[in-house]
Amino acid sequence: MSSFGSSAKRVEDPVLLRGEGKFTDDIHLPGLLTAAMLRSPYAHARIKSIDTSTALELDGVHLILKNADLALEYTTTELPLMVPNPLITKPVTPHMLAKDYVRYVGEPIALIVAEDRYIAEDALERVIVDYEPLPVAGDFREAVKRNAATAHHEIEDNVCAEFVQAFGNVDEVFANAPHIYKNTFFQHRGAAHPLETRAMMATYDELSDHLTFYAASQSPHRVREIYAKLRGIDDNQVRVVVPDIGGGFGAKGQTYPEYFSVAAAARLLRRPVKYMEDRRENFTATHHERDQLWTAEIAFNDDGKLLGFRGTLLHDSGAYVPWGIITPYIAASTVPGPYLLPAYEMKVTCVLTNKVAVTPVRGAGRPQAAFTMERMMDTAALELGRDPASLRRQNYIPADQMPYKMGLIFRDGSPITYDSGDYPACHDKAIELSEYDSFKERQKAARSEGRFIGIGIASYVEGTGLGPFEGANIRVAPSGKVTIHYGASAQGQGHQTVFAQIASDQLGVDLADITVIGGDTQGCPYGIGTFASRAIVNAGNAVHQASEAVRQKIIKAASYMMEAAEEDMDLAEGSVFVKGVPKMSRTLGEVAEFVNGKPGFTLPGGIEPGLQELSYFTPKQAAYANGTHLAEVEVDVETGYAKVLRYWSGHDCGKMINPMTVEGQVLGGVAHGLGNALFEWMRYDENAQPVTVNYGEYLLPLASDMPHVQQVHQEIPTPQNPLGVKGAGEGGTIPAIAAIIGAIENALKPFGVRISEAPITPPRLLELIECARKN
Amino acid sequence: MKPPVFEYHRPESLDEALELLATLSDVKILAGGQSLMPMMNFRYVMPAHIIDINRIKELGEIHRVHDGVKFGAMARHDQAKKSEIILEHCPLIAAGMEHVAHAQIRNRGTIGGSLAHLDPSAEWPALLAVHDATLRVQSKSGERDVPILEWSQGFMTPNLVEDEMLTEITVAIWPEKHVYGFAELARRKGDFALAGAAVLLDFDGEVISRAALALLGVEVGPIRMIDAENLLVGEIPSDELFREAAEHVTVVAGIDDVHASASYRKKVASVMVRRALEQASHQHKSQALAA
Description:
The structure holds two protein chains of two kinds. Chain A is built from 20 helices and 29 strands. By secondary structure, chain A is α+β, with helices and mostly antiparallel strands. Chain A has a seven-stranded mixed sheet. In chain A, strands 7-15-14-13-8-29 form a six-stranded mixed sheet, sandwiched between helices. Helix content of chain B is 35%, strand content 25%. Chain B is built from eleven helices and twelve strands. Chain B has helices at residues 14-23, 36-41, 77-82, 84-89, 91-97, 103-108, 111-117, 123-130, 226-232, 239-247, 262-290, and strands at residues 7-9, 27-30, 49-52, 62-65, 68-72, 134-139, 142-147, 165-172, 179-186, 193-204, 207-216, 223-224. In chain B, the strands form three sheets. Chain B has a five-stranded antiparallel sheet with strand order 4-5-8-6-7. In chain B, helix 5 (91-97) runs antiparallel to helix 8 (123-130), helix 9 (226-232) runs antiparallel to helix 10 (239-247) and helix 10 runs antiparallel to helix 11 (262-290). The longest helix of chain B is centred in the C-terminal third of the chain and has 29 residues, at 262-290. Chain B is globular and about 60 Å long. The termini of chain B are far apart. The interface between A and B is medium-sized, with 27 and 24 residues.
């Protein structure tokens, strides 16, 4: 039976469920020291002096590093811009430890290394920093204004990038369209909030001049590359290993400043140094996705045909742009979504503020884009007197127009092309699952009991599986067991299971006999990372290619060993055999031993040493996933409390390798979106001081807030890769905010409430209800 | 998020604890630790001494006394939620416990700890306010009783001086056939409430003969709604009556924080009062039907 496509149980779960996972903080190397980070209490200040003398007197304190100390260790202490773009006019990146200035609350200033974390934190309180507070660029809507305080003292204004994404004749469309609707949307997305905070541990071997880094990173090769570059050493002098990770959601994909001071401390002290971010630091110093302000105009003809969309996007970049302008870029190019859109224009302005940098969090600007488009669709439906679902369905790109050139040019210079999918059919599946057609009756019945329920719908398209590549290194040992090393790392997605499933069919080996190891730069020489819903497309297909190659090597060697034709061979149950002649069989272990050779004997012609293959998959373009979600909510109109009662997802991520793990991804994604719609809010005051720095103040959705999520899948394979797979890590989040807010608005239709923001809290919703009641 | 060095004391008896309190300064008492431990880890509080009273058995019990129920200060929330005595004599308290945090916290957290911490949104102060509770405070030099409505001395400031500790709480119980209601709005299940109301009613036939009504989450301490209580007594329950009672919600200062403004809390408190009254009235109707 084929393993590919089956809901095999996750092989990683038993260990995690028993509490036997090995996370960075579970690794205790001999002589280990612990670090704490001195962080800025000011949003913007000049550092006049740092006095560490009393802190150094404390028993158990080993080392305190400041920027000047790192300047001796690295060629520069300023971190590189990871994704450069000529549109960025102020390519500001942070220093490993602050150099003369701090530009957000939480910016690292000094690293303290001590016997344990208690002592390190005692020492933190003894470091005396003399600050000169500077004017603060706080709220991004103020920071963009002329004469606003600047986030960096040396810049004249806070705009760090401006660009336009457009196609079609927008001006003409809006000059002539019979129906034009406008709105403004404030959207906030909080941060990633993985269960495990950032974690890192460095250990340096003087003898071999080699540094090993254990890091909860979504992108270990990037950490290796930048570390080697900034130290001016060869990349064989550093190895990055990713232990188990307790979630990443994008935030752990960044190469943070802390890596470098921790590595320097380990080298200077010749002892292993561990730094575990604490939860309060995670709120202020791990990147957010935070704030955007959109204006939007949408144009329709009398028949409900979408004619054009234009708007502006103001994006809060934070104090630095280490990941360039990826988030607003993706946001602006996601708005057109699944619709036939003749004309589009989005003017984007990115503004620096004195807050921690904004980099992608699950969805990476797409949820905000979907929110903007889907709220406008709802507005149009209301104004045109159309059913929101039918208005959408009318405007979807039909399946027979695939591949569909959407109109925008992607950042690699190629036209954005939706490669596959049947949006109307996927929509229909979700509609049917949700019993949408009978909802109006249920709504009416509820209203007669004084209950206000509503339904919301939202659709999206997501470019997944972007390159440049990911690799897999597969080896069959003389034991007959298979080891797969791949370049990216897993944060809970189920890589160990699904990559094993891919190899299992090719090699005829049980899942139990396949070990999948990600996130070790020594296991796979090159890699990019697990983010942007790219691992299954890139690493999955690399595993497929490598297992195919190993399969051919097995067949070739076995054919020689058994003197049978290659085309008569098949693989199953850990053996290679001649079809129809069960006695003619060799275990994979025997074949592996054979091709490992005997000293002094030449391998037979054409047989390569070792049952091993390293293969990279390089996609030509993104594979586009899509979906339609529906949410049903109930609103308590006396308190503004909204509860999601039911939820439905229609989803197409191409071929599903393991439907159960796909459903898990979608479910987690919906939870994330529900948090963004109703709860998560990283608040700052006007001086950019964070005011939500614990989980009593910053609310994540709980299990009790989650409705039952029913899912239906449409499997339209992408032609972009041999497995026909598209990414599934973010799709659950992208439409969820729009669907839930749409449902709330629908529930409050009798009051005429319109919602143009996310998240929406009970006090704010009650305010909107009261306002609407007055009018 | 690690506390600085402190000295840890674990007395086995109340006398030993009071002795320590009399001799040490800069002390915090560790009861269930559900608020104190995080506050110490955040270094919001940095006491020189911790007196852990978890080993003092006599403080952990719930007893029936002649005209009431007596809680040891170390009785856990979960104990109150499941106690036969509570379920029989003051079921409102058990109902209120459903809203206190989550199972793990209810297993550790204590009534005394909640009262000494005095979070404005905690359920205990309001539940005790409608039951006219008396709080016993002891020190090496003596003891005194504090009525629940005099317990709060300001924001998170209980009526305690340095060498004193809260040792027991006595609530007055209501006639067997009394009914109750409890309603609160929290952002998520188990969160501190944005606003809530606790209600006790007793009836003479169809007429409300006695009413007690307290709010939580809106003021720094527990408050009784005396005007609303007076309005209810002598009346037959009706939608208009409960609406009018809810309009009598009077809040002086009001809590204003990251989750909600004072004015929102006041509005919600009023809604919660009405809903708690409706629950109580519904109970009364069910009782009448059963009889």
